[in-house]
Amino acid sequence: MKASSLKLTIVIMVILFLSGCAPDRIKTFGVDEGRTGTMEESVKPEGAYYYFTEAELHRNKGELDKAIQYLNKAILQDPESSYLQLELAVVYLQQKDRTRALNIVENVIKKDPENIKALIIYGKLKQEAKQFEDAEKTYEKIINIDPKQKNIYLLLGGLYMQEDKLDSALMTFKKLIRYFPESYAGHFFIGKIYVAQDNFAGAEKEFKRTLELNSNLEEPYYELLNLYKTLGKDKETVQLYKDLLKKDPENIAVAMEMGYFYYQKGKKRDAEKIFKELGDRSVVQKEVVKTVVQLYLDKKKYDEAIIILQGMLKGAPKSSDLHYVIAVVFDEKNDLEKAISHFKKVAPDSKFYSEATVH
């Protein structure tokens, strides 16, 4: 796998896996508040608690300036409260004032070097500032203090992969599944690393384990598909396509891919059956044609598009939409004779008719 492709995939997938626990206003940086205590426990003086409550009310209304004012009053009542100071830092982050937030967090860490919430915010700020070494050291410190910080393994491992430090990433994700054996994300990323390291047997095992833990994920299926295609495992490839379509019979993209795979392998009859069905569906399901455009035309996969569209036209020979799209493809390939032939088959009542007649 190319390094740039791996980096992009990792960034996207870490975001997706972390989005399973969508952050609220306090957990903006995936903070585990179990280590910082409740607000009643952390904010002791009665006056401070009053001002904190007022700050919360204003923050819930989106009145962040007033929330800051009340938090500052609360801190005056209880200047040693790390909880209050970090709450203030979070509000500054909501205002996109990262400089003030960072100053507060650094002061908290200076007084309390093992404050998990402060360290998480600090690490994330450093990562956003592209100070990756500082972020990595901070995340390492967090999981050394508290190995149960599940999301931090994902952030750290994803960062290592982004930096092409695959050995460090592998070690991080292995730690994750040691503490959380049911972490499908951990197994998935280990599989991704194994692919990059050409450890295909290991990758297959990890992707299968990912699906055992969460069969609703699509990404491991596609990783296995790419793996089986690379290894020439045609039987396994076809079975995966069937599994995906069994899960989601309406999945247009998978059906197209499967049809084209059959075509590549010389199974023209199987390919034709799929393409004809897609053509028939395209008459009432406009998403079918849109999918062809998105997956093949937009990516300039013109040869694949022609095979698929020609097969679909056997299922819908009078479809103006299909004739117009395949005409555009032939036009892009400078095959003007075939392009014009299909443009002429676009019916006058089609939304593409005026564009087709220009040719």
Compact overview of the structure:
With 359 residues, the protein is mainly alpha-helical. The protein is built from 21 helices and no strands.
What can you see in these coordinates?
The protein has 359 residues and is an all-alpha fold. The protein contains 21 helices and no strands. Helix 1 packs antiparallel against helix 11. The longest helix has 16 residues.
What class would the helix/strand composition place it in? Answer: mainly alpha
Oligomeric form: single chain
Mean pLDDT: 89
Spell out the helices and strands N to C.
Answer: HHHHHHHHHHHHHHHHHHHHH
Instruction: Give the distance, in angstroms, between the N- and C-terminal Cα atoms.
Output: 41 Å
Compute the number of strand runs: 0
Overall geometry comes to: elongated
Low-confidence stretches: 1-5, 20-36
Topology:
Elements: H1 3-18, H2 39-42, H3 46-60, H4 64-77, H5 82-94, H6 98-111, H7 116-128, H8 132-145, H9 150-162, H10 166-179, H11 184-196, H12 200-213, H13 219-231, H14 234-247, H15 252-264, H16 268-282, H17 286-297, H18 302-313, H19 320-332, H20 336-343, H21 353-358
Labels describing this entry:
mainly alpha, 359 residues, elongated, 21 helices, disordered N terminus
